[in-house]
Amino acid sequence: MDRIIKSEKNIDNSNVFYTIAMRGLVAFPKMIMHFDVARDKSVKAVEKAIDEGGKIFLVTQHETYVDNPKASDLYKVGVVAEIRQVLRLPDNIVKILVEGVYKANLVHLYDEGDVLRAEVKKTVSYSRAKYDSVEAEALMRSVKDVFERYASFFPKMPKELIASVMTQESPIKLFETVTFNCNLNYRDKQTLLEESNIISKLSVLFACLSSEVEILELENLINEQTKNSIDKGQKEYYLREQMRVIQEQLGEDESEEAYSYINDIMSLKIDEKSREKLLMEADRLLKLPPASQEAFVIKNYLDTVLELPWGKYTKSKITLEKAEAILEKDHYGLKKVKERILEYLAVHILNPEIKGQIICLAGPPGIGKTSIAKSVAKAMGRSYARVSLGGVRDEADIRGHRKTYVGAMPGRIITAVQQAETSNPLILLDEIDKLCSDIKGDPSSAMLEVLDSEQNDSFRDHFIEVPFDLSKAVFITTANDISAVPAPLLDRMEVIELPSYTAEEKFHIAKNHLIPKQLKEHGLKASQLRITDDAVRDIIQFYTKEAGVRGLERYIASLCRKSAKMIASGDKKRITVKPDDLHALLGLKKYLPDIASRKNQVGVVNGLAWTSVGGVLMPMEVIILKGTGKIEITGSLGDVMKESAKIAVSYVRSIAEQYNIDPEFYKNSDIHIHAPEGAVPKDGPSAGVTMTTALVSALSDIPVKCDVAMTGEITLHGKVLPIGGLREKSMAAFKSDMNTVLIPAANLPDLEDVDPVVKEKIRFIAVETLSDVLENALDKPTG
Ligand code: ADP
């Protein structure tokens, strides 16, 4: 028999309550709590307690596993509480809401078979003993501190609760608020309940809370470590599983597509952040109706991103011999250019990781810039892609449009990577000098980012959104006119100038490269079509006027086409194209030789000009008419000439006496200067010497030698300044059968670049002043 159980008749009913033995829970006076009641004895106790006014005794079991507790299984202190609410749930479970009323000692427990009752004795919650207020204050502070740390583990804890604890001044209220709201061990809570001295209560509370915080901290640390140690593979596995579950739950067939995207994303060689972003998109796809516009946009986006060659690199060992052989095989001449390219490749061989080396191939169209770049790609074993920048005025052309735009696409750079199918291609940025900037944004700044080795390892395309590593790509740019390349871009590039070809070079290029190439393209054998050397030279001279060989190649292609037709139709078996056949096959001659002055004339001088299609011989004419000192300039030179004309007039005035020129000529005559129309020269001022010579000749009536050509800029004092394009200009003089070319003395070193054939035939005279020029050019009567 239980030692506290007494006989029925001794029960003092006012202190006897139906009783719930609680497992793992401790009630406190004034504390409102709710819990589930499951055991039959306890449910009965609730029912009976309600019948008897709603008070119930709550006492905690020592051990939670005891099902049918006896008195010895229960703590001796519990709480009489008021039942506030009862909620019946299925399976005979009852949820009750109670409020503790007073603390009571268990005096006797009556086990009535189907219910427990207890006789209890009310006791004080807090003893009235005086306590040291300083000690209380210190303890309160400690409790508050440790509570603050405790609260930091529960981000959802109401701010008001934390504030009320932190500002609490009453030790009892502090104790209650903290105890009621912290999740402490039930044994600790029981101790707190049993203790009635507030100082002891607070210090026990402090100790319990401190150890709880320690446990929480440790728990957190373990969690963190475990989280980190879940390796990438596991993470991927979880993500996959998650997606699969989502897919299953949605039960949509279309989700298979999204799932296959997820699989593809998982196997991409991409950084984790980008992968997450892509998975997010695939996740969105799962949730969207498959036929919706948005789903279409996402699919298009994922298709594009997945198609990019993430982490795909071509590997190839470059050797200088191989590179040299490739360059030599693909291109005739271009000695200096090949040397520079080989130097560039040598650096790459020594340091494959080198960054930021960007070559800019500069020169007129058709001189082989693109084809050199292709050969470099071949030599380096890289895939090749070309980006045409001509007329790009919008940043979005480079960087793409956001995917939500109608018809959005990636920009040209990413498109090139897509075409190249590797992440380390050679990308040719063609015509970088034709980038324009206007209100739609500045594409050159986007270009800067592409070329900047510090930034291009995470190039951002607006469409692709996730960064793409361009740092392994090799960039080569081309430009027709270096001066038009935005300075910050030019700064990053090493310029290699490709000079225009001489007729002789064009001839060799045609023979060795263009003709074989075109024959092959048109399916012809060398034995079926022969173009004689003279015919090739005539095409160069009479049908093309260009620095490069594009036009020449077009004409050769045209000959091939026509021949292929004749051979295919059976008209002829083999064809030989001679100069006389050109008229019938290619039409009328397009260009006649430069209209050089062929006899010594007054006021006509053979000038040399440098144009975008190479050098030209440009005769300049001056006539003097009676008038009032007006200067008229017509022809192709326009405004640039006005200043040179003024300088020339002033200079001629200063030497008028020497050449028997009327010193008043600038007042009583009009001067008309004319340069024939034609290609616009790049360097207007270099016609300075030509004009002055023509002027002196016209005013002094002394003829000019017709076999002398000249070029040079002048100063007011008659000094001759250096010019550009000497190589091209001298070639033009050569073609026009000049014997002598007057060049500025400062240009002497440039003679090194001049074709040997030209140097052999032409006498170059270096001049320092205009009097040197006049000395050599004017056909002064001897004696
Ligand atoms: P660019 O890029 O400078 O405008 P391309 O590279 O397109 O010129 O050249 C035009 C054509 O001329 C191409 O078919 C190219 O192969 C050919 N070509 C140009 N220069 C040479 C050369 N030095 N040797 C062989 N072929 C050449």
Give me a quick take on this structure.
This protein is of the alpha/beta class and 783 residues long. 43% of the residues lie in helices and 18% in strands.
Overall description:
By secondary structure, this protein is α/β, with parallel strands linked by helices. 43% of the residues lie in helices and 18% in strands. A seven-stranded mixed β-sheet has the order 16-17-15-14-18-21-22. The protein has a five-stranded mixed β-barrel with strand order 1-3-4-5-6. Strands 8-9-10-7-11 form a five-stranded parallel β-sheet, with helices on both faces. The radius of gyration is 49 Å and the shape is elongated. The termini are far apart. The structure holds adenosine-5'-diphosphate. Adenosine-5'-diphosphate binds next to α13, α18 and α20.
Topology:
Elements: E1 16-22, E2 32-37, H1 40-51, E3 55-60, E4 77-89, E5 93-111, E6 116-123, H2 133-151, H3 159-166, H4 171-181, H5 186-194, H6 198-229, H7 232-250, H8 255-267, H9 272-287, H10 293-307, H11 320-330, H12 335-350, E7 358-362, H13 369-380, E8 384-388, H14 395-399, H15 412-420, E9 426-430, H16 443-451, E10 474-479, H17 487-491, E11 493-497, H18 503-521, E12 529-531, H19 533-543, H20 550-568, E13 575-577, H21 582-586, E14 604-611, E15 614-626, E16 631-635, H22 638-655, H23 665-668, E17 669-675, H24 688-700, E18 708-710, E19 713-714, E20 720-721, H25 726-735, E21 740-744, H26 756-761, E22 763-767, H27 770-777
Parallel strand pairs: 1-3, 7-10, 7-11, 8-9, 9-10, 12-13, 14-18, 16-17, 18-21, 21-22
Antiparallel strand pairs: 1-6, 2-5, 3-4, 4-5, 5-6, 14-15, 15-17, 19-20
Bound molecules: adenosine-5'-diphosphate.
